[in-house]
Structure formats: structure tokens, C-alpha cells
Amino acid sequence: MLARRHLLGVVALGHLLVAATALAAEPEPKLPPIKAVPDPKPSAAVFKAARWKKPLVIESAEAAAEYYGEKALAELKTKVDFERQTLLIFAWAGSGRDRLTYAVAESYPEQIFFTLRRGRTRDLRRHLHVFALRSNVTWRVKGPGKGPR
Fold it and tell me: Which residue of 7, 12, 84, 117 is 20 to 30 Å from 32, comparing CA positions?
């Protein structure tokens, strides 16, 4: 009887150890398919390299250094994991009411579709949108949507 209790105690202790190690080994947080990165802002050189229809694709911190200053790059590295994410930079000049939107298709890996909605105002403004996409996500830019009626 005593040996049986001892055996049950050892088994219970084993279960506790397995549960404790499972809790201690936290899995890596799952990255969302897309995340807006409003800050830090890249330099004005992105307006020569990127367009709304053909965004600038940055896959490493070294490539980002061309468009971000030293301090801004350090901040960007805290927000984007270049091992697992790709940076997309859309930059263009257009109507102040231009809007860039995206839709995420529910598949795995996800597909992201970007669309520009042209504004009708005649003011010329610079637009800048920076997104971090998970590396396995596919993306595409669709033609401009219709403006407001």
C-alpha cells in the first residue's frame, strides 16, 4: 500500500514538472499578416524609389539603412523583425484625399490586396504608408478604385 502511494506521488510530481516546463517555454508570439508602421518615418529618398503601384520592398536592416537614419533605424529594428517580416513602403504625391486601403484574404498563408482610392481635390500632397508583412504572406497591388461620387 505504501509503495502504491509512493508511485502515485512520483507520477503526480512528474505531471507537475511537465506542466511547469510547458508553461516556462513560452512559444514565440504569432505575427499578424500585416502591421502598419507609422513611426519612424523614412527619409524623403523613398519618394524617388517607391510609388503607390510599385512599393519599395525592404527585406533586411541593411537595406533599410539606405532610407532610415541611424536613430530611426534603431527604432525600426524594435518594431520589425527582419528575420520574419518584410517592409513595404508606399510613397507618392497626389490628391490630399487619396486613400490606400488593404484587404486580407482569409487563407493560409494570407494574401493581401492593396487598393488606391483616388481623391478628387486638386491639392498636391505627399503620401507615405509603411507596412510590415509576415514573410510568408503574398501581396498584390490592384488598380486604383473609383473616387468619391
Answer: 117
